[in-house]
Amino acid sequence: MKKLLCAGAIMAGLLASGCGSTDNSASPVAADEYNASPTSPATPTEGASGMMSPGYSPSPTSPIMMAPTGPATIDAADTSLGKVLVGLEGRTLYLFSKDDKSGQSLCTGACATAWPPVLTLGKPVAGAGAKAEMLGTIKREDGMTQVTYNKHPLYYYAKDEKAGDVKGQDVKDFGGEWYAVTPEGKKAKH
């Protein structure tokens, strides 16, 4: 059965590659603003929906974009903003001012690509400097479980490249403002 499926997939690929024009001299290329190369930074632009477009998408192999394999661990670390919450690889965690404390994340689609939600498989764990009593979870529209802190859904910022980066602090994007989160569950200040 596996051989038949494999052979079918190969045939479908060969048939698809045989379709189309042989003149490639003037074929238009469709651009997808969310798949721009991270080596060519784009400036956020106002979209038709009034939302800010990040013009950047992290690699799908980035740990912050992968499905969780276990409970998320939330720690606190020192940054240029002071002590803030961090997740995978020590990356800064953010809250979205547009989210309310009703248990819903208002960051989906393109927003969730620019601001990947902090996902967990199981109950999140409070690491060094984080308060266990402030940790919680919500269910996202896609069925995934997102970590909350002081009832704020938590997010990474795709443009933060390493531990200690706080490029998402005070950014106006997707109809709201974004702030790093302190261990007290409040937005960080400059």
From TrEMBL:
Keywords, in A-Z order: Lipoprotein, Signal
Pfam families: Lipoprotein_15
Low complexity compositional bias, start-end: 49-59
GO terms (BP aspect): alkane catabolic process
Superkingdom of origin organism: Bacteria
Claim: Chloroplast is one of the keywords in the record: no
UniProt entry tagged with the keyword Signal: yes
Leader peptide range in chain numbering: 1-21
InterPro entries reported in the protein's UniProt record: Lipoprotein_repeat
Chain spans, region Disordered: 30-59
Protein name: Lipoprotein
Native source species: Planotetraspora thailandica
